[in-house]
Predict the structure.
Amino acid sequence: MLKYKRILLKLSGESLMGQKGFGIDPNMLLNYGHQIKDLVEAGVEIAIVIGGGNIFRGLNAVDSGIDRVQGDYMGMMATVINGMAIQSILEKLGIYTRLISAIEMKEIAEPYIRRRAVRHLEKGRVVIFSAGTGSPYFTTDSAAALRANEINADVILKGTRVDGIYTADPEKDPNAIKIDNITFARVISMGLSVMDMTAFTLCQENNLPIVVFDINNPENLTKIIRGEQVGTLVEG
C-alpha cells in the first residue's frame, strides 16, 4: 500500500556535489537514480524539481556585479543542466523520463504544458521540471510548490542533508530537538526555515503537505511513500 501515489521530489543542486566543491558527483547522481527507480517500480508517479546551486546561484550573482535578473536566468540555466544529468542517468537505468523547461529550449526539453506533464505522469514517466518558474525573483522552492499544486501532487518531498526539521540548526546547535510532525502555522510562529515564504505559503493555502527528510539515506524515499515515519511532516 502506498501512502503517496503522486509526489514531487525537491532536490537542491548542492546535493549533486557529493564530496566535491562544485559540479556533479557521478556517484551521487547514480545514487539518486537508483532511489528514484525504486519508486517508479513501486508504482509511484514522480515529478522532480532540482536547484542549480552546484553550478550557479542567482542570489549570489549581485556580489559579482551581475544584474539580479540576469543572474536569476543564469541560475535557471544551471537547473536545466542538472535536469539533463538526472534524465541521462534515469534513462541509463531504463526509466522513461521527460525533461520540461519553463524557458523554451526545444532542442533539449519540452515546454511546460500542464496537461501534457500530467499525462506523462499517468503513463509512468518521470517528469523533471527545470528552469524554475521561468521568471526571475522566484526560487526553485517556489517552482516546486507551484508545479506540485498544478499537477495535484499528494506531497512535496524535500530532500536535505539533515533528517528533518529541528528547533534550531542541528549542525550548529547540539541542543536542537528534532520535530516529527508540525503544522504550517507552528512553523511560521517558531520562525523555522522549511522553504522560502512564497513556496511555503502556496503549500499552506492549498493544504499540500511537505516532508523534509535526509536524502542521503537510500531507504528513506521508499519508507516515506509507504507511510513510515521519516523526517518531519508539515501539514494542517
Summary: The chain has a mean pLDDT of 93. DSSP finds seven helices and eleven strands in the chain. The chain has one domain: 6-234. The first strand starts at residue 6 and ends at 11.
